[in-house]
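Hi W., the magnesium ion complex you wanted:
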Amino acid sequence: MKLKTRIQLLTTGLLVVVLLAAHIGIYFASDHLLVKTVTDRLDNQSEDILQALQKSDSGESTAQLIKASTPTNGMIRVISSDEKVLSIGTRLPELREVDPVYSENHQTAIRKTSIGRTASVFYPFIWGDGQVVTLEITESLVQEEETLGVLRGVLFVSALFILLPVVFGARLLARLITNPIGALITTMDDMERSGSFQTISQKSRTNDELSLLTRTFNRMIDRLEGNFSRQQQFVSDASHELKTPLTVINSYASVLSRWGKSDPSVRDEAIEAIHSETIRMQHLVKQLLDLAREDQQGALDLEQHNITQLSRQAVQRMQQITNDEMSVNGPELTVLIDAEKYQQLLFILLDNAVKYGEAPIIVSLEKNKSNIKLTVSDHGPGIDPAEWEHVFDRFFRVDKSRSRNKGGSGLGLALAYEIAKSHGGTIQVQANEPQGTKFIVDFPIEGIERRSETND
Ligand SMILES: Nc1ncnc2c1ncn2[C@@H]1O[C@H](COP(=O)(O)OP(=O)(O)O)[C@@H](O)[C@H]1O
Ligand SMILES: [Mg+2]
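Structure:
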């Protein structure tokens, strides 16, 4: 069964039950009240008659008294202990057929007769000849039945008047709830069929859960779409990057096979080129893998490390490759950090400083109350501020050909960004004074500690 139908049936059903219970309650309470009024009245009446009967002396005056006291739509009877009618007064012949009942106690009774329901009261008293008899006063409940009939009609009509808006209200409610869900399902279906990302248009700006659901869905789709297109872009950029060295290797391999055997200088050049392109590819593939690993948000291997010493090690390693002047400034700092990732990040920054900057290259460390600040500055030509927001993008290079000549792939800073992020930190680029570039990495200590707690 559809949710819409279920909501509609449930709300309507519940209200019908409540309404029915209320109306039945009202009806029976009214019935009880009306009947009680009649029996109370009959009680009073019978007491009066009994008093009068006791005063009367002859049988004739008793019969007259009974006739005179007879209610217009009722009957008075005197019934002997063997249930015979000793005296009767009534204008309704149908009532004569009602079986006489002898009762030694005061009693009331509601009976069904051929003219409808009747109310009766019974009183024992001593008849003229000394025997104990029963005085019965019966009254037809026709008027009360009429009143109850009107009440039934009123209750029925009012039920209709209440139910009609309830049915429509339930439909409206069901639609209110199911329409956004329906839109969600339609959009998802469309997305599945067309293979494209789609959001749901939202007309009203309410703050209920359903609008929230729609907005969250839209946000999720937007994010998925963004991630998807970034992923596509990344794959196409990566393929493009890999294509260049492969083309170079391919053409040198042809050169080698054609002239390599006869011309040693061509052979050496080809081998050298193939070798350097292979190294470039290796480097590129390693960075791609590192990035993919960072994307998966692998757990950090957090331990207390002296980062000043880690920095010195990285600088020493770098200095084996270059003769540029480099130094590490700052106090000895021991903090919770993933040593390998930290050195990888620092190495990326040092590598850039060597490749695109100029000595002296200065690594400085600072520790504040809440964060550790790592700064790598060089004195090269610097990066145009217009490019600052792009330098951390994947495959971004300020000067593509220059970077390629230096073996760059444009993935270094993207990886540095991911490493900083995985530690809960940030990385930014600034101009160094008087010239050059400055990369500042901020690791919030609390962020790293929280990560170590969740890793445990
Ligand atoms: N210290 C620096 N001085 C000048 N330019 C830099 C510096 N560091 C990075 N860049 C620029 O930012 C680009 C992106 O750097 P990176 O992501 O490490 O890629 P690459 O593989 O080219 O080194 C580089 O191509 C370079 O143009
Ligand atoms: Mg680099």
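The chain is about 60% helix and 15% strand.

W.
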